[in-house]
Fold this sequence. Notes:
Shape: elongated
Bound molecules: ligand BES, zinc ion
Protein name: Cytosol aminopeptidase
Keywords: Acetylation, Aminopeptidase, Cytoplasm, Hydrolase, Magnesium, Manganese, Metal-binding, Phosphoprotein, Protease, Zinc
Cofactor: Mn(2+); Zn(2+)
Amino acid sequence: xxxxxxxxxxxxxxxxxxxxxxxxxxxxxxxxxxxxxxxxxxxxxxxxxxxxxxxxxxxxxxxxxxxxxxxxxxxxxxxxxxxxxxxxxxxxxxxxxxxxxxxxxxxxxxxxxxxxxxxxxxxxxxxxxxxxxxxxxxxxxxxxxxxxxxxxxxxxxxxxxxxxxxxxxxxxxxxxxxxxxxxxxxxxxxxxxxxxxxxxxxxxxxxxxxxxxxxxxxxxxxxxxxxxxxxxxxxxxxxxxxxxxxxxxxxxxxxxxxxxxxxxxxxxxxxxxxxxxxxxxxxxxxxxxxxxxxxxxxxxxxxxxxxxxxxxxxxxxxxxxxxxxxxxxxxxxxxxxxxxxxxxxxxxxxxxxxxxxxxxxxxxxxxxxxxxxxxxxxxxxxxxxxxxxxxxxxxxxxxxxxxxxxxxxxxxxxxxxxxxxxxxxxxxxxxxxxxxxxxxxxxxxxxxxxxxxxxxxxxxxxxxxxxxxxxxxxxxxxxxxxxxxxxxxxxxxxxxxxxxxxxxxxxxxxxxxxxxxxxxxxxxxxxxxxxxxxxxxxxxxxxxxxxxxxxxxxxxxxxxxxxx
Length: 564
Ligand code: BES
Ligand code: ZN
Ligand code: ZN
């Protein structure tokens, strides 16, 4: 098929006298004006053209640019959203930014779109090159229905999800063209647009010599700069969790994890970070945590973060607890080798809660938060736990370790006991705890086991906004009986009917170490990684549900009613 981009053209200028045509997308550009119009091209020639243009990119995702398309925006990409036609007449329904741009180019964008075939479906794109000198490449992307809002069946805000997806797809197209800066249409919700841009462009390529070009997203226009910045901060929080989860286990060891988080929090005067060593953990009589850690040559760390965001530093804090197994081999109950590498992300609970606190600090949320992360490896060795061993948790309860691969609950048992020292408003733990959670819900939602409907409502409402959903799971006595019926100790670390209701028996086990009346356990094993289910996240570790935790904390900071 003949493609317009393959035509010879001068390299020095992007304003060409005669318009080419594009058979690939059925555009006939005879009607095109002075500016060269190159729709639907992803060729090397277009990339070179984009590269050769002048650069004026500040490399900051923060500041909005000025309206008016001045020369100092030259060389940027532009992503514009378009709604699906309401009348069914196929006419493009632009966002206000799209309308303004179309007016600026004398209606050429609308004309070109109408030549490109049927209306753009949700998340599908057309690219136009040379429409305006300040934006050599413009990606138009389908947003779906204009009036999309909360979808009661899906338990999320579909309009926001559509924006995140569309913007992520558009920004990646600009990245493929190797254009270092992209302005993004806020699409009526600048926070969602920023999240789509920053999440959609993120990739872990720290250890590769050949990296994808860095693209800096900026808000197109200046009307919603606060919401845009909020979205950038939320998404950067999730990207921090993705980074920590994706990194190899020989890079992110317990101490390196703690140092990374400490470094992120260094600039905040209202945050104190304690990196507790093994001797401290021993003093605390955290026998369950230590029994897992002793199988590895890497020393355990108990990371403790205090964020004092409330006007009163004595206000009861929200306490976050995260499972921090930096590598889970299974221990003596060794896991199969295929896919074991994914267990470098078994610190996803610690990564998401710590990243949520970093984000809360960046947003200056007015509440106190304490973060607790027991960090260690689960390895087989001569010192490792053996099936049938009995260990003693901080609250004195004895635990029979019937399966050394059910190690997360051992760390959490001690960390949850410790969490009760702080007169918490609520204790929320996150853990990649069970394969059974993945079997139950897959990657659709985090499973929430909670003894508090007040807590559940806040988590649920937060997740509708973020699109990183939660689903309530049972904490029945039925499951408790299956872990407390134990031959040698007070409680067994696996249910007596082995695999049945595995996520629920794990939650019932944790409940044995909780006396607080507002506690939630989030099993995030199913949402740990992304293949292609969440379109605005690339394949890899997902960092979910960091944004939901942040939104939840933000809501809690506004909830002045007592939680009864
Ligand atoms: N870290 C795993 C759970 C997991 C599996 C997380 C897959 C993410 C993806 C956990 O430590 C584990 O191995 N759990 C066991 C428990 C079982 C032995 C009762 C499991 O789920 O198989
Ligand atoms: Zn395990
Ligand atoms: Zn694990």
